[in-house]
Amino acid sequence: MDEIAISLTDVSKCFKRYRHPVDRLKEILFPGKARADEFWALQNINLEIPKGKTLGIVGRNGSGKSTLLQIIVGTLAPTSGDVHVRGRISALLELGSGFNPEFTGRQNVFFNGQLLGLTQAEIEERFDDIVGFADIGDFLDQPVKTYSSGMFVRLAFAVATSVDPDILVVDEALSVGDEAFQRKCFARLETIQERGGTILFVSHAAGTVIELCDSAILMYDGELLLTHTPKTVIDKYHKLIYAPAEKTEEIRREIRAFDRGKTRDRLIPKIPDFATEINGHLGNGSHGEVANSAIFQQGARAFYDPEMKPAETIAYESRGAKIIDPKIITLRDQQVNNLVGRHEYVYTYTVEFSQTAYRVRFGMLVKTISGMEIGGASYAFSDYADTNIVEAGTKLVVKFRFKCLLNPGVYFLNAGVSGVVDGSFTYLDRCIDVAMFRVLPEENLMGTGTVDFVVKPSLTVEKTAIGVEKQGELIETENY
User: Fold this and answer.
1) What is the pLDDT of residues 399-429, one digit of tens each?
2) Per the database record, which ranges form the ABC transporter domain (predicted)?
3) Which domains does the chain have, with CATH numbers?
4) How far lies 467's CA from each of 118, 351, 464, 470, 472, in Å?
C-alpha cells in the first residue's frame, strides 16, 4: 500500500459572519447567545493523498479550494475533523502570503526561506540558484511592494521550490507570468514529481490539470463532490458549471451517485498502459479483441469498426439545440473511425434547433485518451448565411474537413454548438467524448509523440582521409 502523505478525516470549517463589528465583542462578553451567521466553507471532507502523487483541485470560485489548502498547509485550523501531513510542506497560496512588502526581494528570500524551515546557512547555499531561477535582475534589491504580479510570483516560486519540499501546494500561482517562465516552473514541478514529491495543484486550466496530475477532485459549495481521474473530473466540472441554474442540484446528485458507484479509492491513478486504456474504453470481450487486432495490424486503408464507441459520453443540458449523429466520413461520404495518417477526412454532425437562436457557433475538439486537448476549430453560422438568427425548426449539417496529422493512437471527439441565451453567450448543446477514432500504425513510420509533423529527415556524411577533407555527401530519406 502506498504511504499516505496527506490524510483528512471528516474535516469541516465554519466561518462566522457578523452584521456589526460590535456583535463580535457582545458574543465574547455574553456567551451563550449567537450573534453571527455561520458559513460552512468545508463540510465533512475525507481525502487521502499517497506520497509521490499529484492531485489536481478544481471548482469555481468560492467552492472551498483555498480554504482546503490553507487547512492542509496549517495556516487555518479546521472547526472539526483530523488532518495529518507527513513531510516538509511548501506552499504558494494567495499572492503576497509569506512575504513582507516592505522588505526587498533579497531580504524576503531569507525571511521566507526561514519560514519554510531552512537555516541561514542553507539559504545562503541556495541563494544563487533562487536568484537565477527568479531572474528579476536589479529588482532583487527593491521592496517587493514595487513588484509586478509576475515578478512577485517568480521570486515566490523560486523560494518555495528551493527547499526541496516533500509536499508542494500551488494555488493558481502559475497563471501569472510569461510563457517562458511558466514552462520553467512546470519543468521544476516535473523534477519534484520525478524525485517522489507530492503536489497539490489548483487551476482553472483544464488542460494543465489533465496533463500534470495523476488524479483530481471536484469541490463545490464546500463539498468534495468527486474524486477520480483528471479527465473525468474536468468533464463533470464543465457539465456542472455550464448547466442552467435550475438543473445544478440535479447534476450534483448525478455526480455524487457517480462517485459512490465508481470510486473505491480516494485517489485514482492514471492508467499507464496504452492497450489497457483502449480496451477499457471499448469494453470487454469482443470489443477488446477488436481493439488488439486493429492496433497491431499493418494496413493503410481507413475503415469503420461498429464496436468502437466511447464507454461514456457526457452531454450538457440542451438549451434549444440538439446535436445528433456525430461521425467521421471520408471525402466520398464513407463512415470511418480507423483513419490513415496524413489523409483528409470530415467530422460531421447534425444540429436540430427547437428554439430560435442568435449568434450561433459550431465547434469540434480532438483529445487524447488522457483528455489532453490536441486541437479543434469553430465557426459562426453567420459566416455562411446573411443573418445571425437560426429559426426554430431548422436542421443544420455541420462539417469540419481536416487533415489527420496525428501519430498512431486512439483519440476522442467533442461537439458543441453555442449562442446567445437570455443576453449571454453560452452552450446550446455540447457533447464530450461523443465519438472516438484510431489512427492506424504504418510500417517505417518515424513520427513520435502525438502530432505528426511530416518530418523530412536527411543525413549528411562527411568522409575524410588522414590530413585530407573531402566534400560531404548528402543522403536523403523521405517517409511518405
Assistant:
1) 999 999 999 999 999 999 999 987 889 999 9
2) 23-246
3) 4-87+166-262 (3.40.50.300), 278-439 (2.70.50.60)
4) 59, 74, 8, 10, 15
